[in-house]
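Two records follow; treat each independently.
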Amino acid sequence: MKKGVVPALAILGILLVAVGAPGLAIAVDKISGKDIGPDNPIYGIERAGEALQKAFGMISDEELAAEREQEATYMEELAARYPERAAEYRQEAQNMRQEAQKFRTGATGAEPTRIPGR
């Protein structure tokens, strides 16, 4: 297990009891800052926190787009570091960039370009 995961999970357990699951997810997202990447065990909780913040208007589409871009860049770094999983990491990076584009489209209110006949 990675160094620091056990204390982090203990803190998450205390937060869960104190603020409930939705509060925990938001707290993890706020506390973690930019330190939690897609390969972190609590990444899913952070993403849930982002979804809750979006639902309550606490985070903008542009901020979410920037986070996905940062995560995509991190996945590209992982692809370079671990060639045996490079294809998987690059696919995930591409998915994150597409998600970022969807957030940006939502932020501007612009419709994506449509190809005639599709």
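The next record belongs to a different protein.
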Amino acid sequence: MPRPLVLITVFVVTFFGFAIAGMPAQVATSRVSDMRLAGAPVQLLRAQGSVWDGAARWRWRERSGRLDWALDWRGLTPGLQLSLTGRELNLAGWLGGGWSRLWARNWDLALPVALIARQVDRGGAEGRLTGQLRELDWRDGRVRALEGTLRWSGGAVRWPPDGSARLPALDGRLFMAEDAARAEVTDPDGQRLADARLRGGELNLRVYRAWPMLLGVSSGGQASDVVLEVSRPFLGQGGDGNG
């Protein structure tokens, strides 16, 4: 390539690189104004900084807080270091990927479990949910790596029409086994309450009798008995999915 053309190419690439990097954060946050989460709009307000290194205020239903982001490459993989904070809410970690890959690393989570329980009609729960997602690697329609933990601090729960119970702290684990993505929930004694498996484009969920026993609604049987099993196609999984 002739030297003048090389210089022009370098200039153009550098110019557009700096132009994009310096683009105001409002350009990105304005795209979020039409997003909805659980039926309610997500708003990003008062953005500052650039597209690649900025912050904004967020608002969803009655909750609000701050969102920070910064460009952070992992080797040749582009990504963002994200932090979302609010009243009793903290979510932070790295998210990156490419055309057919979604890669999450070192995420920390802390939130009131009531935010999730409120999605159940006339349901509710006390306590906090904390967790660490060390890695989630989704490539070519398959989960290639998964490692993480969850913990609910315990407390009172209620469900329709008039059920209620007070439960101990529960633990969850996310992991890979036999080339399938898996999750399980256990009680303080290590008894399995429920588990899930993602394999071959199908999500399988099992609930064990230990769960209704813990709720005080079991009529007998062994804690290890499967009382509910559901399988359904999982959105985004190809025919050669996990397993």
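Discussion point: Residues 25 and 50 are 4 Å apart (CA to CA). How would you locate this feature using only the token line?
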